[in-house]
Amino acid sequence: MFILLTQRILEAHANVKNLSLVAAKMNYIKAWQLLPEYGITLFVVKFMNSRKEELLGVAYNRIMKMDINSGDHQKTWRFNTMKAWNVNWENKHMMVQFEEENIVFSCLSADCKVVHEFIGGTYSCQLVQKMQVKH
Q: What residues does the FERM domain cover (predicted)?
């Protein structure tokens, strides 16, 4: 086991030892951006009719329901199927309407205003990008 680990470290070092500092940093950033969870912002939420806390992941093109312990994706909703989102300010519940279903949850790790604005900002950025591609 130790020999295998040492061998892998030496191979990795051989791949970067001749790079400049800036090139090595750029390679690191590119590798980081290729990770499956890159660009996903996580919030702890409790979905309506559920007793357990779960993760809500917001990415540039989708919202995901994730297991809080493992990070496994349980359900994904695409922004291109989203119709509306709003907050009931009295009970701090957020509702997001999609073509196929509506989801309602309370925000536990941040004020629901933060999640509301985050989803709105992310969705707006996606719409702007679509408009720029068309023109």
A: 1-135
